[in-house]
């Protein structure tokens, strides 16, 4: 399920389809509505739901600071609290729609190579807030930071498209690692 931000997941529309790109399974409105409708329609037949809902929220927050590092540091706790609140809402609705399914929340990794001393604690706090939300919904939490940010960030070139395309999304190798981490949690 969604890779756009938690707020967009709840309010819609999907930024990918809004930009004119096709989806494998198109839907109208918020992705949360589509997901819960699907889960209700297939009750008892969905074993696993995964969520990765932090990237666009983090990007929007950082952009709102216009490059001001102190703004990012000062505003991070409130931004993390908003994301965690949205995640709580999402997970509770998904849990109600699929009470027996395994829910897995995929956490954040830090792509700010060279600034890990500043950004690492923020991403650690974000992951802790997401892990807490996951626990409240009887969901599992996967923390990719130890793998993705290994070796001072050198692993990011393998596990994301950052070095090749400037894109922080996972590469095929990164998605394989995330799947392995999720499987280990289950």
From TrEMBL:
One MF term in the entry's GO annotations: hydrolase activity
Matching CDD domains: SGNH_hydrolase
UniProt keyword list: Hydrolase
Every SGNH hydrolase-type esterase domain range: 33-177
InterPro entries: SGNH_hydro (IPR013830), SGNH_hydro_sf (IPR036514)
Pfam families the record matches: Lipase_GDSL_2 (PF13472)
SUPFAM superfamilies: SGNH hydrolase
Name used for this protein in its record: GDSL-like lipase/acylhydrolase family protein
């Amino acid at each position: 399920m969604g890779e756009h931000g938690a707020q967009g997941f709840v309010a819609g529309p999907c930024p990918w389809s809004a930009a004119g790109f096709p989806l494998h399974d198109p839907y109208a409105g918020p992705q949360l509505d589509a997901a819960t409708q699907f889960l209700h329609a297939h009750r008892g037949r969905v074993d696993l739901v995964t969520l990765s809902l932090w990237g666009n929220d983090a990007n929007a927050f950082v952009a709102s600071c216009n490059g001001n590092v102190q703004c990012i540091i000062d505003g991070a706790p409130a931004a993390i609290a908003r994301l965690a609140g949205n995640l709580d809402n999402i997970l509770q609705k998904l849990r109600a729609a699929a009470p027996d399914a395994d829910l897995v929340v995929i956490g954040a990794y830090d792509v700010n190579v060279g600034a890990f001393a500043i950004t690492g604690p923020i991403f650690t706090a974000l992951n802790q807030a997401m892990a807490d939300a996951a626990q409240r919904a009887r969901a599992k939490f996967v923390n990719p930071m130890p793998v993705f940010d290994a070796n001072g960030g050198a692993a990011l070139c393998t596990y994301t498209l950052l070095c090749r395309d400037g894109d922080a999304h996972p590469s095929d190798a990164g998605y394989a690692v995330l799947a392995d981490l999720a499987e280990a949690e289950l």
